[in-house]
């Protein structure tokens, strides 16, 4: 019988080994993502042959599997998940499948599954060059905001153990301003942030911060997906400071991502303001994802 287990740091080695066999673009195909959000989404994992399988539960999707990651024959993996769901008396549902994944499923299991585009969970992916240079008329506003921000007495620093506490203090102040205690999503994010700093080195995270007058006003935490892609998991800035968000976005990429081709800034979750903000940076790719379920 297939058994799922809680996500532990010791799982990182085998998970990374499986994920490294394909050049994923999606923010969901990296170990750190699952580790820091494991409590919020009740994430559990399993290994089936040479595939990494992730089971999660949230209010939006209910119980759902991340489309299996790995190499080799995926058919027995899907069949194992189907058997598991029958044993648990739950419907087999998967999420974050690519168009190529849906085509593969249709070929292996003709007319068995139905697919739905999941726009709210599509990733926004930008070129490093675009986020660094912000060239062109359409990004003129971003350049202006950063110009105003740089009128302050500011500096950029790499995140290290020496400034963890300063970032956490900034986050505590940010949460007070934004009333995190009353928002379930922000409470979950706060937990993810604490996990990120607690296991920063073990998860191989990296990031940067910006200070004004020696006080942290913005920071970013990211993870390498592969040699081409880095994913930004967390970004915080004081919105009352003009240009703080565009500045940390630009400075982090300019200082710490030049060896990569793309930056994945994750999804918008259907939040109108977030979608507008992510589109305003002119993504090179809006990574299409599909939900999958067995036809009734």
Topology of this structure?
Elements: E1 5-6, H1 12-19, H2 31-36, E2 44-48, E3 51-58, E4 62-70, H3 75-88, E5 93-97, H4 99-108, E6 113-117, E7 123-127, H5 128-133, H6 140-149, E8 154-158, H7 164-178, H8 184-198, E9 206-212, E10 215-224, E11 229-237, H9 244-256, E12 262-264, H10 272-280, E13 285-287, E14 290-294
Parallel strand pairs: 4-5, 11-12
Antiparallel strand pairs: 1-2, 2-3, 3-4, 5-14, 6-14, 7-12, 7-13, 8-9, 9-10, 10-11
3D structure, described in words:
With 296 residues, this protein is of the alpha+beta class. Helix content is 36%, strand content 27%. The protein contains ten helices and 14 strands. Strands 1-2-3-4-5-14-6 form a seven-stranded mixed sheet, sandwiched between helices. It has a seven-stranded mixed sheet with strand order 8-9-10-11-12-7-13, sandwiched between helices. The longest helix has 15 residues, at 164-178. The chain is globular. The two termini are 25 Å apart.
Tags for this model:
296 residues; 10 helices; 7-stranded mixed β-sheet; 14 strands; alpha+beta
The largest β sheet comes out as: 7 strands, mixed
| Terminal residue distance | 25 Å
Q: What share of the residues does DSSP label as strand, in percent?
A: 25-35%
- Total count of strands: 14
Number of helices: 10
Backbone shape: globular
Mean pLDDT: 96
Residues in helices, as a percent range: 25-40%
